[in-house]
Specification:
Rossmann fold, 3 strands, 5 helices, 58% helix, 3 domains, mainly alpha
Length: 138
C-alpha cells in the first residue's frame, strides 16, 4: 500500500484513513467471492441474505435463522454444528440453482412504482395549480 504524507495531519487520522481503505478493499473482495461462489457456508445472518441476492445456495451453521423465508424458499438450509448434517447440507445444496426472481423480497421495482405514482399525482396537481395561477393573473 502506498503511504502518502499528509502535512499537519494527526497520526490518528492517518491510521483511520489506512484502515478505512483496507476495510473497503476487504468488502470488495468479499463481494466478488460471494458473487462467484458455487456455495456459501456461513454462520452469519447477513451473508445468508447476500447469498440469496447473488443467487448462491447457502448452508448455515446454525440451528435457527432470522431469515426463515430463505429456508422456506429453499435458498438456505440450517445444519447446526453436527458434522454429518453439515456434509449432507453441502451435498444437497451443491445441486441447487437459486433464482432470486422468485420475489422472496419483492420484485425490486418499488422505486419505479413510487416514481410512477408520484409522477401521475404531480402531473394532475401541477396542471390544476397552473390553471389556478393563470386564473389569478387575469
Amino acid at each position: 500500500m502506498k503511504i502518502t504524507t499528509i502535512i499537519g495531519a494527526r497520526p490518528q487520522f492517518i491510521k483511520t484513513a489506512m484502515i478505512s481503505r483496507i476495510l473497503r478493499a476487504r468488502q470488495w473482495v468479499r463481494e466478488i467471492l460471494e458473487k462467484n461462489a458455487r456455495l456459501i457456508v456461513t454462520d452469519s445472518g447477513g451473508i445468508q441474505k447476500e447469498a440469496y441476492f447473488h443467487e448462491v445456495p447457502c448452508v448455515t451453521l446454525r440451528d435457527e435463522t432470522e431469515w426463515v423465508d430463505l429456508v422456506e424458499a429453499g435458498a438456505n438450509i440450517l445444519v447446526g454444528a453436527d458434522k454429518g448434517k453439515i456434509i449432507q447440507g453441502i451435498s444437497r445444496m451443491m445441486e441447487k440453482e437459486i433464482d432470486s426472481s422468485s420475489a422472496v423480497y419483492g420484485r425490486c421495482d418499488a422505486a419505479e412504482k413510487v416514481v410512477e405514482i408520484l409522477d401521475g399525482w404531480c402531473n394532475g396537481h401541477i396542471f390544476s395549480i397552473q390553471g389556478h395561477l393563470e386564473n389569478e393573473k387575469r
